[in-house]
Design brief:
The complex is a heterodimer of chains A (445) and B (293). With 445 residues, chain A is an alpha/beta fold. Chain A has two domains: 179 residues, D-Maltodextrin-Binding Protein, domain 2 (3-Layer(aba) Sandwich), CATH 3.40.190.10; 209 residues, Periplasmic binding protein-like II (D-Maltodextrin-Binding Protein, domain 2, 3-Layer(aba) Sandwich), CATH 3.40.190.10. Chain A is globular, with a radius of gyration of 24 Å. In chain A, helix 2 runs antiparallel to helix 15, helix 11 packs across helix 20 and helix 15 crosses helix 16. In chain A, strands 1, 2, 3, 4, 5 and 10 form a six-stranded mixed beta sheet that branches. Chain A is 51% helix and 13% strand. Chain A has 20 helices and ten strands. At the A-B interface, helix 3, helix 19 and helix 20 of A face loops of B.
């Protein structure tokens, strides 16, 4: 009988605790992120701090793989009817998200429904342009904002007899510096790049104010066509990389962030990279290094222009079973993330740029950028650089895939299997085929 | 004498079969049916719209020269993996057979790699051969060999073939060893008395008697290279550079999961399904019936 009593006691006990929970059980808010390392740790910390501040909502920030994998996981969850409330989506995925109109709720609406103040103009202009609509509302909330810059190893520069305080400003200067570094054996490879398509195609286009496609780079309509191959500048850039690869003054180290290790361990003396990598180098690089704006071609008309926004923004998913209370919780948490203490802490810890004007002004007034000139480079090329027709960002569907087309075709050119011109043309041709398919499926929604 | 057991209850056999049938239906037939259904649809990533397109996805695939190249690449990859996994395995088995002292120890060591998960195996090889940090890459550089699997497609292919074959050697080794042990000693002794050398014994007695094992392993290895090397390829090269190591299975994953192009991806899985069915038929027909000595 003792056993049965125990079972009964357990049953009563658990029934009690369940009902106790139901009374003041906080509403669960799921957020998925794609950041690793320092950035991921910091973002998780914000979730925990938010939970401590209030008891109505419980935010869980989880890592579901890097951006592409996380995106796939979120899409699968959406198809199963249970997507995360908030998803961090990198720049390249924005076009897809914008195309899936019934899958998302614009952040401007999320705040409006919650009865909270939300002014798109609070966010820095480049990010607003990238993630906003024509009527000025924001589809997603910019969070980790970055842009492309050049990191260089000052020790290697000195060893090669170069001026460590005068980093190359243009591509010919960079090529010359790389040659010098290689010939003096100051480093094994002169220059490498992360994020090949993002930096050498997208950021490169913005820097020279050259468009990638029609319909205002995809922002004005789904029927946009890529036309970058018609501009010789892109071919010239690929050709430059191919030529430099031959004598290893440039060494290709793989897609995504793969090349980063080669700069960090001193093998390559220069790297074009996301400004968001800065926090990691501060912590891990064992040599003196500097940051310079992304190089440009001096013979390009009007260059240099501003670079464009990268990084990621926060998207709010729609789902049939989502309650108004949940959306309110989402708005509350997003409100916390855009608050001044979080924004300034984020920028200082990780090296990403502050997403709001107020946080930027605060950091400037506080003297953060004066004391950290390396952190100031990114913000000055992004926000203070010359704006042009094509510096406001791109919005193409299936861009993650199209970036890979570009990677593949340029890899083939680097292997010597095709010319630079063929690489750029093939990337465009395959990209356009993907865009037409996207147009068909997205316009039907 | 009729030794069959006859159930008196007509329902019982079906009940006993039910769990197995349920598993088969839920985990095999249902996904397969879904794949077939999705292969004739075109849909956006989020599943908001679905349109029936008939065989358009298949047509698109077979008109895509890249897909046909992937086919050839997969055949080369599988062939190379099978050979690189079979030859050393046979060699090891022959050696292990001759060892008298510590035989169990050697055999255990040789079987170990099979216990390693594909992704882990991939990462091991990735690290050893990584151009920036790998120890083997460092040696190769010292020898003056220009090694960069991040850029050179052949280097990358070589790397995934080695990693995939390495993992399969243990499995093959076990089967070869068992095969060798079942060869009648009397035959070999007779050959020795007739003055046959090691090579002659191998060529005229051992190898022919091993042929059922070899043929079975060949099919198993090809199936392995076709379908089970995904983890290794994903960890080592992610199909790159420039698709140099993208085999059929990897392309299904890439198109479906990364590019979220579900129609084309499903069409590819249907094609793969047909290939598996054919390979299984070959195995049943020839391995189990025809190869007898």
């Amino acid at each position: 009988m003792k056993f049965a009593m125990k079972i009964a006691a357990l049953a009563v006990g658990s029934a009690l605790s369940v009902s106790a929970l139901a009374q003041n059980k906080p509403i669960e808010i799921q957020m998925w992120m794609g950041l690793t390392g320092l950035g991921g740790e910091t973002l998780t910390k914000y979730g925990e701090e938010f939970n401590k501040m209030q008891s109505e909502y419980k935010v869980t920030v989880s890592f579901k793989g890097q951006y592409p994998e996380q995106r796939a996981a979120a899409v699968a969850a959406f198809r199963a009817g249970n997507p995360p409330h908030i998803m961090q989506m990198f720049d390249a995925g924005s076009g897809d998200m914008m195309g899936a109109k019934s899958a998302i709720v614009p952040v401007s609406d999320v705040f409006k429904r919650a009865g909270m103040q939300f002014n798109a103009a609070d966010f820095i202009a480049p990010a607003r342009g990238y993630y906003g609509t024509k009527d000025g509302s924001l589809l997603s909330m910019p969070f980790n904002v970055s842009t492309a810059v050049l990191f260089y190893n000052k020790d290697a520069f000195k060893k090669a007899g170069l001026d460590a305080n005068k980093p190359p400003a243009t591509w010919p200067e960079l090529a010359a510096a790389a040659k010098k570094i290689k010939s003096t054996n100051a480093a094994n490879c002169g220059f490498t790049t992360t994020w090949l398509a993002w930096i050498q195609l997208e950021q490169f286009g913005a820097r020279h104010n050259i468009g990638l496609g029609t319909q205002s780079n995809g922002r004005a309509g789904l029927n946009s066509e890529l036309n970058f191959a018609s501009n010789p500048a892109f071919v010239k850039q690929v050709q430059t990389l191919v030529d430099m690869q031959k004598d290893k003054t440039f060494d290709y180290k793989g897609r995504s962030n793969d090349a980063s290790a080669s700069f960090q361990n001193g093998e390559c003396a220069m790297i074009t990279q996301s400004s968001g990598a800065m926090g990691g180098y501060v912590r891990d690089a064992k040599f003196d290094w500097g940051v310079a704006p992304l190089p440009y071609w001096p013979d390009a008309k009007g260059a240099p222009y501003a670079t464009t926004v990268g990084g990621a923004s926060l998207w709010v998913f729609n789902a049939p079973n989502r309650s108004a209370a949940e959306f309110k919780g989402v708005a509350k948490f997003l409100d916390y993330l855009r608050s001044m203490p979080v924004m300034t802490d984020w920028a200082k810890t990780t090296g990403f740029l502050p997403a709001t004007n107020a946080a930027f002004k605060y950091l400037t007034d506080e003297g953060f950028y004066a004391q950290n000139p390396r952190a100031a480079v990114a913000i000055s090329t992004l926000a203070n650089g010359k704006q042009g027709e094509h510096t406001g960002g791109y919005r193409f569907g299936r861009w993650t895939e199209i970036r890979d087309f570009y990677h593949e075709e340029v890899e083939k050119a680097l292997q010597g299997k095709q010319t630079a011109k063929e690489a750029v043309e093939n990337a465009q041709k395959r990209g356009n085929a993907a865009l037409r398919q996207f147009e068909k499926t997205a316009s039907a929604s | 004498m009729d030794r069959r057991v006859i159930f008196s209850n007509k329902l019982l056999p079906y009940l006993l079969l039910a769990p197995q049938l349920a598993v088969t239906l839920v985990f095999f037939f249902w996904p397969a049916g879904q794949a077939i259904q999705m292969s004739v649809m075109e849909q956006d990533a989020f599943g908001l719209t679905k349109t029936f397109v008939g065989l358009a996805n298949f047509k698109e695939l077979f008109n895509d020269p890249e897909y046909l190249k992937t086919f050839w690449r997969t055949i080369i990859f599988s062939g190379a993996v099978a050979i690189c996994a079979l030859v050393p395995a046979l060699l090891f088995a022959l050696m292990a057979e001759r060892v008298v002292r510590g035989a169990t120890f050697y055999r255990t060591i040789l079987v170990l790699p099979y216990a390693i998960a594909p992704a882990v195996a991939g990462v091991l090889w990735l690290f050893m051969f990584s151009p920036s940090v790998g120890i083997v890459a460092y040696w190769l550089k010292k020898l003056g060999i220009d090694w960069n699997p991040k850029l050179d497609g052949n280097d990358a292919m070589l790397l995934v073939i080695m990693a995939a074959a390495w993992k399969q050697i243990s499995y093959n080794f076990l089967f070869f060893l068992a095969g060798l042990q079942s060869i009648p000693k009397a035959l070999l002794e007779a050959a020795s008395i007739d003055g046959a050398g090691e090579w002659r014994k191998f060529r005229t007695i051992i190898f022919p008697l091993l042929s059922p094992t070899t043929f079975f392993l060949l099919v198993v290895n090809i199936v392995y290279a076709f379908f089970d090397t995904f983890g290794i390829i994903d960890a080592v090269t992610s199909g790159g550079p420039a698709k140099a190591t993208e085999v059929l299975v990897y392309k299904v994953y890439y198109d479906g999961v990364v590019a979220l192009n579900l129609g084309t991806s499903s069409a590819q899985s249907v094609i793969l399904m047909v290939i598996v069915i054919l390979l299984t038929a070959v195995q049943f027909r020839y391995v189990e019936k025809k190869v007898h000595y």
